[in-house]
Amino acid sequence: MVDISQVQWSTRRWAEEIETRLMPGGAQDAFVNVRNDDPREFDAIFLGGGAGGRFGAAYLRAMGGRPLLVDRWPFLGGSCPHHACVPHHVFSDVAAQLLLERTFSGQLWFQDFTGKTVSMLAVIEMFRRGRTGPHAFMNFQSKEQLDLEFILGARGRIIDAHTVAVDGRTYRARHLVLATGARAKSLPIAVPDRGGVFDYATLVDDLDYEPGPVAVVVGGGKTAIEYGCFFNATGRRTLIVSRQSPLPMVRDSDTRRYLIERMEEQGMEFWSGAELTSIEGDEHGRVRAVMIDTPTGEIRIPTDFVFLGLGEHPNSEEAREALGVAVDAAGFVKVDRRMQTSVPGVYAVGDLVGAPMEMFKARKGGTYAARNIMGEKALYDLKDYPDFLHTHYEVCWLGLGEEEARDRYRHVVVLKLPPDNPDGQAVALPAGDRVMLYAMMKPQLSGFQKLVIDGASRRILGAFHVGYGAKDGFQYLAPMVRNGLTVDELGEMDELFLNPSYFIQLCRLRAGHRVLRDL
Predict the structure, then answer these.
(1) Residues 355-382: pLDDT tens digits?
(2) Phi-psi category of 61—alpha, beta or left, where left has phi over 0 and alpha has psi -120 to 50?
(3) What is the pTM of this model?
């Protein structure tokens, strides 16, 4: 145990201390920042210091409460900066840059990229070196700026709904907030024991060789597609093997079609209705080939690299055994709109409570749990949240796709770019941030946008974007759509030539019509 309650470490010192605990054989003692001179009881123990726990504890502290954070890792912030959202944003930046390099290979000032393969290992090692900085800052900020108490680098064990044992001591609180996250699902088949099969966590922790020319990705959801685009962009043949059609979360067929066509243009192969049935190892215990059952028969694919994007399993076992919290069929902890579990005084937040497995939900859920613990009635509803994923592009969506809208409304109007063109001529719209070169030279790559509107009420029902620069715009668009934003009101806004601003321009072109028509 290292008692740091009476010292102030710089971010550099934090980085050094964290690094020694992340290295094999490094220091194992926990960081303890608990003020023994504070006579108050803890209002809540947050078991898990990721996004939900850290933001929840900060909010509870801001309201005058006393939280205690406990995490097995020697840093706060959880899986996001270490295994999940930060690396996948790094890899998506790489994919977007490589799309640009390959599209304009040998033209203008771009180098000739013909036949070139980019090192995956070098990119991942770059991320490993860089991730300690965010860890160090979050520890520094949480202690010195947010005034939080925490125990890091030691596993917390649930005793009861008010008590947690950590590093040989017990801590009690009025409430318990479960923020233990989730882990990647594994394959239900034998896997070689010396490497070659990775998920989002083991990829960044364990990859120690340069993968060969073929990457096999299992799954068709967000993780599989996002990482698959990175592997493809580095120059590897990339197979997306999934039982169902890919990208089911993108709730509009036009948008989904545009995305898949662009990915296929980059050489990605979508093996839908297929299943990886076995993995063959070599004499050293590394992956040598896989067998894939397809609608036309079983196929053997030589490869030394398999990536699993099969979804996540909640870390709910201990809470179920120790507390008896209710869970759904997949093991995710059930909560009400206050983030309260079935056990009085026990809350749950983040990936532990199920989809969407996103940072914004964890942060917001943590703050809502804190508000309810401190006596405020705060109800969190995930309805109609904006969502996103990365291919070689940013993809954002909100609300209903065209098919869903037509099932619910009699008069649905669609505004979209690029426009339908009978002669097949590609039109350089939409054009905005980071796509101007595409618009001038490869207009079919400049992106896609679509608004779905109820023609009777003139309300925006759904919005879809493929391009760059949309995520920030969508988080502001979302509450306006929930509050009944109309095509006329959207057309009244001012635009700054960002990709999301094309929604404004499209609305202006139709807002004057008494009877709305497609565009």
Answers:
(1) 887 888 889 999 999 999 999 999 998 7
(2) alpha
(3) 0.93
